[in-house]
Amino acid sequence: xxxxxxxxxxxxxxxxxxxxxxxxxxxxxxxxxxxxxxxxxxxxxxxxxxxxxxxxxxxxxxxxxxxxxxxxxxxxxxxxxxxxxxxxxxxxxxxxxxxxxxxxxxxxxxxxxxxxxxxxxxxxxxxxxxxxxxxxxxxxxxxxxxxxxxxxxxxxxxxxxxxxxxxxxxxxxxxxxxxxxxxxxxxxxxxxxxxxxxxxxxxxxxxxxxxxxxxxxxxxxxxxxxxxxxxxxxxxxxxxxxxxxxxxxxxxxxxxxxxxxxxxxxxxxxxxxxxxxxxxxxxxxxxx
Length: 288
Description:
The chain has a single domain, classed as Divalent-metal-dependent TIM barrel enzymes (TIM Barrel, Alpha-Beta Barrel), CATH 3.20.20. The strands form two sheets. Strands 1, 2, 3, 4, 5, 8, 9, 10 and 11 form a nine-stranded parallel β-sheet that branches. The protein is built from eleven helices and eleven strands. Helices cover 36% and strands 17% of the residues. By secondary structure, it is an alpha/beta fold.
């Protein structure tokens, strides 16, 4: 089955903060049907970060023909989960995840404790008929000894409790082949994030090729400092071999959606996501 193309709402974070209803309507007009939210205020807002009650949010999505297929939840805390899961159940969303909350990993013992927590959260989600997924950046492709942090996370979490949302851009920027990772974890990948890397980027593609020391503890301050806004371009207009990733995804039995995401753009955000939608039409194996 072709991958359904959706959008991570972080791509329109500035526009949506001012008028979420108008932005959701525009997304639908552009042709997007599937959305993933990014809630960085779960402590005060258990939903999708817009401050809207679940019923109003559900009605808005239904009005514009949109379906929510996931949401990043930060901070990810056990005491917040009941309200978060209740909200998303009202929307019909069965998947929540985490992204960048747990850096730096520091040492193997800390990493294993985080994995225990991921398993616990996954169990709480499963009890509610939902799935929990882990989203990567480039930090997971550092090493403890001979093993990648990402592989250790997969090895120390229960595959029935902790799934993967593989961000192919960040995997590539961690010096990895995203297509190989997709095939390696084909049974656990349930969402793909797709960004693109510009041909005229000042940084090398691999962040460990002179941008960040491979052995350095990467905390949020460092991550934001080295994350170059000009290291992103409209998806389908850059240099990443996206067709290879789509073809690798054919091996994934639980994968239905590929979500376009752009962290930064030189353009108006709404113009940017329209260009990405049009550029993505050239790829085979996707449904727009």
